[in-house]
Design a protein that fits this description.
Elements lengths: L1 E7 L4 H15 L4 E5 L5 H8 L4 E3 L3 H17 L3 H5 L25 E5 L3 E3 L4 H6 L5 E3 L15 H6 L2 H4 L7 E5 L5 H12 L11 H12 L4 E3 H4 L16 E3 L2 E4 L2 E2 L2 E3 L5 H8 L4 E2 L3 H8 L15 E2 L2 H12 L5
Parallel strand pairs: 1-2, 1-4, 2-3, 6-8, 13-14
Antiparallel strand pairs: 4-7, 5-12, 6-7, 9-10, 10-11
Helix pairs in contact: 1-12, 3-8
Length: 328
């Protein structure tokens, strides 16, 4: 069974609703599973209960397993707590992000993972079809910036080839299969990290660096549409791109329709402020509002007066574009 999964809690309630609505538009009643970022889930649980094809993951054994796995990874890392500026042995930076790994357990045989701050804009049947040939499918431009996946230690080039490193990916949109990392494989990966590989993991993007390591170290076949499609057919995916054209609640990149839009770098608090009626502006705001209030247009905020620009965005955009180079 194919399905789409995401990771959420009540902090990203409005973004989750927008994502679920967009999935329904373009993929009908495909089953969806939401993994809990933490225990703060009462509001999203109430929303999920209204949707017969959506479930909130509740397998505590699976959740605890991956919580434990991620903690083991970061306990091995030699400098993570220094980078996190927290020396407490009980502190793990953004530890809840690792719960997306529960998709390797259940409930789908094959799954597409999408971050809660994404919106689907097209069918993803082509993503699932590609899983007939490869183990891991992505569609992003993270390969342009290694620094947000690995620290460039000397050991990195000893472990991975340039070809492997050219296939790094963003952890916000990827497809794979249940059971692709067996318990034996997980133990082996931990032993390799213990043997020295942990030093090049990037602690400030914890789930992203660990996922890339697991895929690359396990030699899974990795297919990125951003690398494989002809240049005239591929599209960008990030909110930082100024070149997308909006039409009929869709986005187009050089006449090609986007598969999804990732509101990367925008805080969930911005979306919460917007949905509470604050007339704050940010790129592709109307697209988000359309999908957020698709099934309840009467509740869409009605703004008056001139909008206020999200003043952090220009600086954030410049920083992201400079460091990540993700305009396409």
């Amino acid at each position: 069974m194919n399905g789409i999964c995401t990771l959420a809690n009540d902090q990203v309630y409005h973004q989750l609703v927008a994502l679920l609505n967009s999935i329904e538009v373009f993929m009908g009643d495909i089953p969806v599973c939401v993994y809990p970022y933490n225990s703060n889930t009462s509001r999203i649980a109430a929303e999920i209960a209204k949707r017969p094809n959506v479930r909130l993951y509740s397998d505590s054994t699976s959740i605890q397993h991956w919580d434990c796995f991620s903690r083991k990874v970061w306990d091995i890392h030699p400098t993570a707590r220094q980078r996190w500026r927290n020396s407490s042995p009980d502190f793990y930076y953004r530890v809840g992000t690792h719960r997306r790994f529960c998709a390797f357990d259940a409930p789908f045989d094959r799954f597409l993972y999408m971050d809660a701050d994404t919106i689907l804009l097209n069918s993803v049947d082509f993503i699932f079809n590609q899983l007939d040939q490869q183990d891991w499918i992505t569609y992003d431009f993270q390969f342009k910036d290694l620094s947000h996946v690995y620290d460039q230690m000397p050991r990195l080039s000893q472990v991975f080839s340039d070809v492997q490193l050219s296939n790094i990916f963003c952890s916000g949109f990827y497809a794979s299969r249940q059971g692709i990392f067996s318990s034996i494989q997980q133990d082996w990966l931990l032993s390799e990290l213990q043997a020295g590989d942990a030093e090049f993991l990037y602690p400030m993007a914890p789930d992203q660096t660990v996922l890339n390591y697991m895929v690359m170290k396990s030699n899974l076949s990795n297919y990125n549409f951003a690398l494989k499609l002809p240049p005239e057919q591929r599209t960008g995916c990030c909110v930082t791109s100024p070149g997308f054209m909006a039409q009929d609640n869709l986005l187009f990149d050089r006449n090609n329709r986007l598969t999804y839009l990732h509101y990367i770098g925008l805080s969930s608090s911005l979306f919460n402020r917007l949905c509470q009626g604050e007339n704050v502006e940010f790129p592709y705001r109307n697209l988000f509002l359309y999908y957020r209030y698709l099934s309840e247009p009467e509740n869409r905020p009605r703004f008056t007066g001139q909008s206020t620009a999200y003043d952090a965005f220009p600086r954030m955009s410049e920083r992201i574009l400079k460091k990540l180079k993700l305009t396409r």
